[in-house]
Specification:
homotetramer; about 400 residues; alpha/beta; Rossmann fold; Dihydrodipicolinate Reductase, domain 2; 2 domains; seven-stranded parallel β-sheet; four-stranded mixed β-sheet
Chain lengths: ~400, ~400, ~400, ~400
């Protein structure tokens, strides 16, 4: 019998998770090709990656809904997923629903709290008891599905900024915080701790705190497992990490880089809150100076425009100097469907993470940095170089 | 006393050459910084590249004009070069004029012939006598300026397509063609032969034939010198070679890539001729399928719009499929000043070529492929990888 | 019992006709609102316009297909029409099919001939016999549906250019041409003659010849009926007619106006033929100089890009001079679905034409000029002024 | 001898004023054509408008600088004005300098106060004494130049919002406020009062309060003079007022209209202050719902991007529904030079205002509404209709 690998999604009914679920079902049923899946590239065909049919989906969610409803809404609002495809997956999506448990909302901030279905979500006295509740869900999922491996990936809405500066840097000092009554750790970190303590890898596809604290990295190493983050790189920032190195290589001087992002999905609704937006903008902004080696003026706006739904439209204006100081301009418009771009990367990350764990790697999975806006453990933000790191890692015996 | 390195430009009064001349003068006089010069990047600072003040300019031209006139026109029409900068270079530009000789128009096609000042340009009975006349000009330049090295670079207008298929592949068989009365070899190839026979390296910054024939490559090797080409990569195609690999790496399927180019300089005037345009479009179009590994529908238009002068504006529309087959769109607009983008690369190529020759290299300089739309001797069109080749080459002891 | 008004469409299975049919069915069933319908504007609410439920559809077609097939293709390829909407109209569309008759292909040019289903289409020895066959179809439609009025509208593919210069200008001189064996009149004009001879109004929504000849205008007057054309104004040209007057009013000097159009529907396929494209480009280009009072450099390209389907994407680059001669730039991108934009205007034109006839008007319906790229009988191309003409006409008692 | 008409500019050394001055000098010297000047359109050639050579410039300013310095900075930073043109105007600009007096900063808000040269600007105990000081400057200008007419136009930086709700609506009740010690009236209104009390017309080209209060309108009527405002319409809002009516006329439903504005001139620096920005955004935003008759979601951003200087770049994203509810998109990019666009309109407004006064008109000059983002006294925001009002007014005997 084949291996069974669990993929546990925090934010299991969000757009990205729903797209990943539709996609996985459709891959298994051969209704779609592998377009958009990095792990399906020729460079990775000799790797023994987990097969689509070997992946089992489960997850946490704080809203009371079901996968089919979300999938149909995605089809109707975004016009990006064909309704026929959704209908063909109905039984698969209902199976996914059965593996979804109520999530936690510890320190997620007001905007996310407002999304949560209060009667559905459990609140816990201490961070420790929240972690234990999560772990019980994970245990049941593993046992119930005879999983050999479990990958936990965070796709939940962006939390407000959280200051890491005063956190202890070793796990030994950090762990007791979980028991304090006023532990301010956000949900994303509690999920990370829950997974890693059990020895399961954790991937943070959002700009939330997750496994960023140094002590949590140590926890991963102590438990012989892996983690990586943070903030999936899919649209405007992806293009920045592709274009900025080219400008740098040609020694063209960026004077200003302005990026406007508009979209109308739930992510956008949450980012409409100034606190949550702050977390996101920071993640989108920092790479430029790292790539260029100097600080041009930048401006990033993210605005919630309801009519756009999941279509994340970005307009970037790049003002640069060339030879003799002559100013020139490049602008681009990106009309991408957020879930469609992010969904397959979730499946890719599950496959690559599963491989890393099987290869016996521990701690940060830096070769996966091309997937993230703010990759942990590296300053490399040049997409081409990041991708080369993945290819090089893949080609290791 | 310092080395003197000659840079002999075919098309010495064109916009790119004029910009290179203004720039070189301004670098020597410290009136500009090194913005736009690749060879000024930190990666190349430990190389013993020729200093700006050691370069001496000369060249061939088929129009009767002078450098200051062209420079002022560039300043006034394009508003891209500051008039003050031009005025400050006046004596330098007049010095350049003294090293400019009448060029040849063998088989350059009607559009270019119309540009030529007939009383100024010499016509030759045989290709061989044209080559010899060119060599005499080069010899005088070398002797007169006590040059240790001479780099010949072709910046002249794009010639009509020339069929290489029936040309002999060895120099021994090829050379006699020069004496035939109806030798159809275009001027760009005669310049290449003239330079290489004398042992001077040749760089073809245009899509014209130049040193593309295999036999001419052999000539370079026989004479212990280098050559490279062809077609400088500065704007829309540069961006294609940056963006297409990123789409490929993310496994996004390009369905169509449409590129519209509009500009109003002399290059545009020549490309308005369907024959000459054919040469250019081919050069701009081929890289996509090489990068992607399949053939999406492409369309490239190049239109002469007088009011734009040297401002080459490109609009590209990239239609691609993502996960679940969902179609998405990226468009970009590039408003670059052609001469400003190309001018510094001419100086970079002179410096890197001089280094290659000093390093004892012969034949094609493939590590310079990032500078060309259709690099000879390699199928690598991914800009990031091409640039890495340059960096790797530079870092060789 | 209510009046019954027939709308007879030439090109009855094309994208525009199919959209009009889906729309009409959905209006009758109250499944859509009146978005996109000019005649539903408040300015026209006091007019006694024919009700949606009073319109009966029929038409000619040269391809063998059916309306549901075309509608589903529109839904699946363009993702612009919801499949559910199509399914809900199925029986209506099947009813439309029953009123569709084989069309003619006299002098439509090779590109359109290739589309035609040869066994389906009838060929006629003389223009006169083709006209009579058409008239027989119209007569049967009128009688079979007890129609009080019939409006014939041409939505068929663009024919190659046809030279009007040598045509006689009176109907008396013109009519005998129909009997000559080598009558070169294109199908669009034969349809016009067939309708007008029977006293039914004719509207030419394409750039084909149709009722442009002066003698055909006289025929309309002789038969106490109306006609108008030509070439529906829906996308890029619509915007030109909106923007150019504003530039003119501010006395900004247009130096060049470049428009690139890409799309992949059947219209695009036909326009890929240089002859047919010539007809279209002429129609799109002429209005600028009429609006501005001078001739800036213009360039219009129309390219068939299959992946875009019915999504007509236009990019316009407007280069203009302001005060002190300073050059500035406006660009716009229009991503419109061709059938969706044109479909409702067909219904609007039917309603306004029906009203014009009831008002006893004859000859050209100039107040409808805002609907056309090249309105017959007027030089007014300023959209705002054209629309005001419609409003003024509507408000006449 | 010819009439002498004074044009008194508040903000005399700003970019718009400087451009108007360079332009006026160049018109007088025949160095430029009338491009960009509305009053030079054929529609207005039969009006007896004041000749360029009859206009005398003066004004108030709060920074210590001179016109030539500002003009050269405009030439060098924006590359939009040719340096040669500036040099040719030098003596004219120096003459203008002699007519410039220190302005006032009553209630202009912190951002503008920071710009002011404190030793240069006079501060006044009461609004009344500020008004009197301004009037003394105006009187001297009129007497010294034997002016028959004086037009005062406000081009100063945007003030923070000012609440008009509690102001008395008659001049009799309003006037005493000027004597109160804590009169909060902003400088723009004091300038308006100063001019109108003397019987000179006042034009407010900014979104500041100026002559908006109803009582000030009454003052104009009482003094038999005219006024108009507010906020010059030159770029993005101009285009909105051109495009939105066309969407409305075609019954296309605007779902959202997002406008991003970036620029780096002094205006942008002031608008970087959230308070001042609020005044501007309100002025740019309101017209859409007036034109459309409903309230789509809108978003307007204005960001100070230093490198752009006076080049105001706007990107607008218009998301609209068509027939069958299908969503479509139009985007435009406007790369306009702010001073170049606004400068000539200042001269136009002076000419039309002079005419209005000579025609004996009093109160609001509503026929000038096409020049303003938020025209006083009318709800008409459709540019084409506004312009028609100007043409109709002009054609009155």
């Amino acid at each position: 019998m084949s291996r069974q690998v669990g993929l546990w999604i925090i934010g299991a009914h969000g757009g990205v998770a729903t797209t990943a679920a539709i996609g996985l079902a459709s891959l298994i049923n051969h209704r779609i090709d592998t377009c958009g899946l990095v792990s399906a590239r020729p460079e990775f065909q000799d790797l023994d990656l987990v097969d689509w049919s070997e992946i089992v989906l489960g997850g946490h969610e704080i809203r009371k809904t079901d996968c089919l409803t979300e999938a149909l809404q995605l089809a109707d609002t975004t016009r990006a997923v064909e309704r026929e495809l959704v209908i063909a997956c109905q039984s698969y999506l209902e199976g996914f629903d059965k593996n979804i448990r109520p999530g936690i909302i510890n320190n997620v901030g007001r905007a996310i709290e407002c999304l949560a279905d209060k009667q559905f979500v459990n609140e816990y006295n201490s961070a420790r008891s929240a972690v234990e509740a999560i772990q019980q869900d994970l245990d049941e999922f593993v046992t119930g599905n005879q999983l050999e491996q479990l990958i936990v990936i965070n796709l939940a809405s962006t939390e407000p900024p959280y200051n890491l500066d005063e956190l202890p840097e070793t796990w030994a000092e950090f762990e007791p915080i979980l028991d304090s009554t006023d532990c301010g750790l956000p949900a994303s970190s509690l999920y990370a701790i829950a997974a890693l303590e059990r020895g399961w890898p954790f991937v943070n596809f959002t700009p939330s705190t997750g496994s960023c604290p140094k002590a949590i990295d140590e926890l991963a190493v102590l438990k012989n497992t892996c983690h990586m983050g943070h903030d999936g790189k899919t649209g405007e920032t992806f293009l920045k990490s592709v274009l900025a190195p080219a400008f740098a290589n040609r020694n063209l001087g960026i004077m200003s880089w302005v990026g406007h992002n508009i979209f109308g999905n739930m992510d956008g609704q949450i980012l409409d809150n100034p606190l949550n937006k702050q977390t996101k903008v920071k993640s989108k902004d920092q790479l430029l100076s790292q790539i260029l080696g100097y600080d041009p003026q930048t401006h990033i706006s993210i605005e919630y425009i309801k009519s756009l739904g999941d279509w994340k439209t970005a307009w970037d204006h790049i003002h640069f100097r060339g030879f003799l100081g002559t100013p020139m301009v490049m602008t681009f418009t990106w009309q991408g469907c957020d879930s469609i771009l992010a969904g397959p990367l979730v499946l890719d990350l599950a496959r690559f993470t599963d491989l890393a764990v099987r290869r016996g790697e521990t701690g940060l999975m830096i070769p996966l940095c091309s997937f993230f806006k703010s990759p942990l453990g590296t300053d490399e933000n040049d997409f081409a170089k990041q991708f080369q790191m993945l290819v090089d890692w893949a080609s290791q015996a």
